Amino acid sequence: MTKLSVIVPVYNEEATIEKVIGLVRSVDLGDVEREIVIVDDASTDGTFERLETYGEDPDVSVIRHSRNRGKGAAIRTALERVTGDMVIIQDADLEYDPADYPRLLAPILNGEADVVFGSRFKGRIQDMAFLNLVANKVLAWAATLLFMKRVTDEATCYKVLKTDVLRSLDLACEGFEFCPEVTAKTLKRGYRLVEVPITYRGRSAAAGKKIKARDGFRALWTLLRYRVKR
To answer: H-type helices in 130-177, by residue range?
Structure first.
């Protein structure tokens, strides 16, 4: 039976983490099994205390970093523990809806793709800040130009990959450069990438959004670096 591993990198999301876990567990995946691998990146609020309540849950694994290392590092830590055939990245806020999982998994399950991106720009967007929208468009354009493959949403959180494909990328990311590193390496290596529409509900910095302008520049540099790197 096919199994999905849901990787949840989390840092200071006390208010939303339990709801996110509930949404991931409630979505109907048909015959696909699931596991949830959560990496708490040294949260300083009550996030980890909430996660400790899942200690006896056979479908949920909780790992804690002793110091804050970044989203990419948390994903790489989780990747060492996953046992599924496919991996999806799930942020611990409520910007992305796990109800989109079936359509995200379908291209891989049908043998049409090795990698699936959930495109916000093919789907429905609510409350995305204007500067974030511009940055996302620039990164999508850059990825398309650099790798000669149309990409509408390079920076989407919802990336689904066959587990062996993700492990083959030999990730080096520590922070938010996870997305451009995955994009660059999958496109450069010729893996079959499909985009599907998803729903997105943005949140503000005041509500806890963590990505900054410098992360956009770092993402652009990451795309360029892996394009020219042998």
So the answer is: 130-147, 163-168
CATH topology of domain 3-228: Spore Coat Polysaccharide Biosynthesis Protein SpsA; Chain A (3.90.550)
Main-chain phi, psi angles of 119, to 5 degrees: -90, 120
- Is pTM beyond 0.85 here? yes
Task: Give the C-alpha separation, 227 to 62, whole Å.
Answer: 35
Three-state DSSP class for 5? strand
Exposed, middle or buried: residue 194 (CB in 10 Å: 0-12, 13-18, 19+)? middle
| Side-chain half-sphere CA neighbours of 220 within 13 A | 12
Q: What's the pLDDT at 205?
A: 59
State the pLDDT at residue 4.
Answer: 98
Read off the pLDDT of residues 59-90 as tens digits, 9 standing for 90 and up.
999 999 999 999 999 999 999 999 999 999 99
Say how far apart CA 72 and CA 117 lie, in whole Å.
17
How far, in Å, CA of 13 to CA of 44, rounded?
A: 10
